[in-house]
Amino acid sequence: MQLGKDQFDIIPLKDKIVLPDNPTESFASMYGGWKAESDALSMGKIRFESDNQRILIGDATEPLTGTGIFQGLDTERTNYDWRVGDPSGQYIHWDGSTSILTIVGTINASAINIPDASTANSFHVDTSGNTWWGATAIGSATAKILNTGAGTFSKVTISGGADVIFISDTLDTSTKKILKDFTFGSSDYSGAFKTGNITWDATTGAITGGSGALFNKNGLIFATNGEATITLDGITGGANFSGTLSAPTGSLGAITTGLITLDTTGYLRGGKTGYADSTNAGFFIGYDTAAYKLYFGTASDTTYLKYDGANFSLYGGTLTAPILQTASSGERIVLTSSTTRLDLINSSGSTVASLNYGSATTAAIMKIAPTNDARRGLEFVVGSTLGSDAKCITIDNPSTSISIDITDGGSTGLNIAGCSTNAITISHAGTGSALDIGANASAATINLAASAYPAIEIAQSGTGSNSYGIRITEGADSLKSGILIDNDATSHVSHCMEIERLADADDQLVAAVVIKSANQGTGGRACGIDFTDATIQGIMNVAADTTAVGTAAGRIPIYVGGTLKYLAYYNA
Fold first, then answer.
1. Which of 78-87, 150-159, 178-187 has the lowest average pLDDT?
2. Separation CA 203–CA 187 (nearest Å)
3. CA distance linking residue 117 with residue 136, whole number of Å
């Protein structure tokens, strides 16, 4: 076998080539145990990549893939990264794209100085675990945390919302509790809790602007646009509200307010348990069942004032006011205390009825002035189910005055119609007349128009010497008859006077008419009946008698001195 120098290079023994037991590569690619490729050199878990500009040790293949060491271009081949450790555990990683060094795991150092130990604006951690900022020495630092847990800061801003927790013996933010010892300064009003952008005078505590709530040593204040809307004074106990105060229950002392509004569940009460309580004395004002109601009453409702949502009722009490009226205008009832007067006023403003009490003797106690022809001035209606002793009007007048006086009765002073039995019944027990009529008018004083019943019916059952059914007494100056009956009926059955006398007196003379006539004048004459002005054919009409006496056709029986006698009459 011949070896030519142009075919092989001869190397020293120290640079010998070691072949693996089962080589998979060509003999020319192995040198000193390293695997040489066109762009990489590797041996075991160490690899150098020239094209990727990487050094890989262990199982590292990418910046955050595989445990080991990665150094070189990142995955995008744009920035240089460096990483050592297990990406899924503890590691150190420099990201060239973000210029961020990430350390996951524990760092042990005797001291930390950033950027160094001599720069004032710096960060430091000493071997005891004390930390400080902004100074080279911990004693002069304005921000520091000692290994005892004590911290000093000139200003701290903590963000993070619910994730931020601060716990001490005075404050626990995890349970949202102030535990103890928080107080406001006593010298002025600077110390306070606030919400919103509310501002205040630190000397006086007065609100100067903004909106929100303020809690200081004096109390609690709410404000809108610089104006206090709610003030609770912790010193005086006073409370002021510019809006609506609403509460389901509560107990208050003196209340000064401009407006109280109750909803459908609210009420004011004292003594009474509710609107339905008629047992206890007290009051109730509020909503009950389906309406707003009012109830003032004594125990067991001996006196009360109620409003049931539709009507007022007053029982057993006294209502005092200068003027009470059912409406301000139109038809209404007006009660005026100064004149002691009750007026009923129509829609035109005219008083149609009045009830008046006063000292004037000419003033009417009750005055009724109907304004419509179809209306009655006064009407009484008694129910048909009432007893026979029920009365529409009862007058009890023990004085010597007149009970009813009609001074101007219009066309008709008294009109009685529709009586089922008697129009007028007079039961008289006095010493004077039961009915005394003085006639000074130009027309008849009494005008009676009868239909199926008598115009006048007098039931007389007296036994006294003056117990007359009708007694007419004319004065000495009278020039007319006591009774004038003017009958203009065309029927022959109508009589001016009909007298029916029925008796049951044994052996006694019963007279239907008794006439007493006397004339005490000089040369005077008196007669019982005067027919001189009668233009009649016969003085009287008696039953025919068939007992002829001489030339007399008959006789008329008369009593003379209580003995029966006869008067003869002739046919011509």
1. 178-187
2. 9
3. 6
β pairing state of 341-345 and 332-336 = antiparallel
The pair phi, psi for residue 506, each rounded to 5°, is: -70, 135
> CA 88 to CA 104: how far, in whole Å?
10
Token pair of 329, please? Answer: 């205008």
Strand partners, 323: 336
Burial class of residue 472 (count of CB atoms within 10 Å of its CB; 0-12, 13-18, 19+): exposed
Which amino acid, one-letter code, is at 530? Answer: D
List the beta bridge partners of residue 94: 82, 101
Residues 6+ apart with CB under 8 A from 239: 230, 231, 232, 233
SS3 state at 558: strand
H or E stretch including 473?
none
pTM higher than 0.70:
no
Which residue, chain included where needed, has tokens 């996951």? 104
User: Residue 41: in which H helix or E strand, if any?
Assistant: strand 40-43
Per-residue pLDDT tens digits for 483-500 = 888 888 898 888 888 888
C-alpha–C-alpha distance, residues 60 and 149, integer Å: 41
Is 297 a residue whose pLDDT tops 80? yes
- Read off the DSSP letter of residue 177: E
Vertex 302, ends 299 and 304: CA angle to 5°?
85
**pLDDT tens per residue across span 224-265:** 999 999 998 888 888 888 877 777 777 777 777 667 777 777
430 φ, ψ (degrees, to nearest 5)? -90, 180
d(CA 168, CA 179): 8
Q: How many CB atoms lie within 10 A of CB 73?
A: 17
Residue 10, both tokens: 């001869």
Q: Which residue has the tokens 């001599």?
A: 118
CA distance linking residue 344 with residue 369, whole number of Å? 10
- Structure token pair of residue 442: 């130009």
- Indicate the helix (H) or strand (E) that contains 252: none
| Beta-sheet pairing, 177-178 with 193-196 | unpaired
Which residues have CB under 8 Å from 520's CB, separation 6+? Answer: none
Task: Report yes or no: 213 and 231 within 8 Å, Cβ to Cβ.
Answer: no
- Looking at residues 48-63, what average pLDDT do you find? 91
**29 SS3 class:** helix
Question: d(Cα 457, Cα 421) in Å, to the nearest integer?
Answer: 11
